[in-house]
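FIELD: query
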Amino acid sequence: MGIAACSKNDCQDGPNRWSSVAEGRLQSRCYHNRTRSTAEKLAKHFPSDYNIILVDSLETSPSGAPSAIVPTAPATAVSLEPATGKIYVIPALLESKSGGIIVDMAYRPAPTPLIRLARSVSRSEWHATEGNGGFWEQGYRQFRAWTTMKASQDIIRRMVCEKYH
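FIELD: result
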């Protein structure tokens, strides 16, 4: 609910699955996981028309620069510097000339390395949303689904920020 809304509004295994469902309109999906066997298990859960491509390194992508990035790794496992023992996020990920969206599911510490990278590139074609944006959108929609009333977005946003920033 929240991921799909972030994708539309610009704003471990479970989040990966939901990101794929939210991105159902994409032509192909490249999955990278620190453990290839985990990526292989995940890929088996989806129909073949999802065209899932397993990627062993973020430095090379068989389908070119992505147009949507939905990382689910903890921000502490990601680095903008090579050879740190963490997932190295390279600026080339953001080379798509048509831009795209980033919905970083990590929310601590904010901003995450990927969000910092996206902001430093300063291309207006790329729109980045921190993980707490998914919480906001999910909160809005769940409140409405459960109560049939429109949620106060300001209150939900303030509560999420107080809790997760």
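FIELD: remark
The chain has six helices and seven strands.
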